[in-house]
Amino acid sequence: MTFDEGVLLETERLLLRPFDKDDADDLLAASRDPEIRHWMPWASAQTMQTAVDWCTAHAHTDPARAMNFAIVAGERFAGSIGIGRTDWTDGRAEIGYWIAPWARRRRYAVEATRGVAAYAFEKGMHRIELLAAVANVASQGVAEKAGFIREAVLREAMLIGSGQRSDAVLFSMLASDIS
After folding, report:
1. Is the CB of residue 110 less than 8 Å from the CB of residue 146?
2. Other Cβ atoms within 10 Å of 34 Cβ, number
3. Is residue 179 very low, low, confident or very high in pLDDT (cuts 50, 70, 90)?
4. Under CATH, which architecture does the 9-177 domain have?
5. How far apart are CA 52 and CA 151, in angstroms?
6. How far apart are CA 115 and CA 81, in angstroms?
7. Could you give the CA distance from residue 164 to residue 11 in angstroms, rounded to a whole number?
8. Pick from 83, 87, 63: nearest CA to 16
9. DSSP 8
10. By percentage, how much of the chain surpasses pLDDT 90?
11. Residue ranges of the N-acetyltransferase domain (predicted)?
């Protein structure tokens, strides 16, 4: 089993599409945002070259294991969402996202999360997981508004932007939750 290479997903207001070289400037700009730097361990080391490399190569990993999408609202880059840690045997994968400063509080992350989860369920996934740092209240709100159920707190389960370990809230959604 595999996700579809080059797939485009459309939601009510968003286009979720593969990254391309033209997204590198927006990716670099977002990496300079204090909120993104606080939560995302990759952000502080971002350069134009690493942004180009991400957009043209690294974001296009093996579709059997992961998919990454640029979130586009209208004609404007709004962030990123990906699905990874895919286990086709167990039917489980994990969603992660970040949103550019201008696009926050518009429910784009919620809409993109629902769209990617629906796509994963269509491809045969049974369970989608989502992790959010315990102090990242905004990300937890996205998970809940997207219909994910809070299950547990995992001790020191994720790195955040400072390079420190953080406890993480585990959320999940089952295919039966949206049927």
Report:
1. yes
2. 9
3. low
4. 3-Layer(aba) Sandwich (3.40)
5. 37
6. 10
7. 35
8. 83
9. -
10. 88
11. 14-176
What confidence tens digit (pLDDT) does each residue in 106-115 have? 999 999 999 9
Q: How far apart are CA 70 and CA 13, in angstroms?
A: 14
CA neighbor of 3 nearest in space, from 13, 18, 20, 14 = 18
Q: Are 89 and 127 in contact (CB under 8 A)?
A: no
Residues 92/130, Cβ–Cβ less than 8 Å: no
Domain ranges of the chain: 9-177
Q: What is the dihedral of CA 4, 10, 128, 169, to 10 degrees?
A: 130
Tokens matching residue 19 = 């990254």
pTM above 0.90, yes or no: yes
Q: Rounded CA gap, 125 and 105, in Å? A: 29
Q: How confident is the model at residue 74 (pLDDT cuts 50, 70, 90)?
A: very high
